[in-house]
Amino acid sequence: MIELTPLTTASAQDDPGRMHEVVIVGSGPAGYTAAIYAARANLAPVVIAGAITAGGALMNTTEVENFPGFPEGVMGPELMDKMQTQAEKFGATVIYDDATSVDLTGEVKTVTTAEGDTYRARAVILANGSAYKELGLEGEKTFGGRGVSYCATCDGFFFRDQHIVVAGG
To answer: What is the per-residue pLDDT across 44-98, written as a single tens digit (0 to 9) for each?
Structure first.
């Protein structure tokens, strides 16, 4: 039987330089799912959530209708808030800062943030997601989520039987 035990129970904010079991870079669905599983395994995960864009791309999404468990849909920010709450409930610590460098060499991995804190860990999970590329067209930001979409898989359903333009690949 393998027994996983945290190195310490101190808060990540008390001493960012101390050794952690796992640091997760990213606070979207993948990051918070990793945090939930790691926290339930008593690994006291630290989530580097981002300083401004915590919650991932779903924070800019209106209605999410393809996420299991929400047959009527859920607003993106509400879904991310629920995921964060669940991760914290099980013991994850969320840090609102941007990861600026990651060193995965050696036994001890490090994640350095924009504030200059360095988090050391036995494992680092990179769940930093993706970013869509804007075209720079007039009205693009205004109509984001209201006609302008950046996810064909997510939003294609809304445009069924309509004439649309797809840019990109």
So the answer is: 999 999 988 777 778 877 788 888 999 999 998 999 999 999 999 999 999 999 9
Tell me whether residue 155 is one of the annotated catalytic residues.
yes
Instruction: Give me the catalytic one of 15, 81, 151, 161.
Output: 151
Is 117 annotated in the active site?
no
d(CA 147, CA 131): 18
Write down the architecture of domain 19-131 according to CATH: 3-Layer(bba) Sandwich (3.50)
pTM higher than 0.70, yes or no? yes
CA distances from 68 to 74, 109, 161 (A): 10, 34, 25
**Is residue 154 annotated as part of the catalytic site, yes or no?**
yes
Domain ranges of the chain: 19-131, 134-169
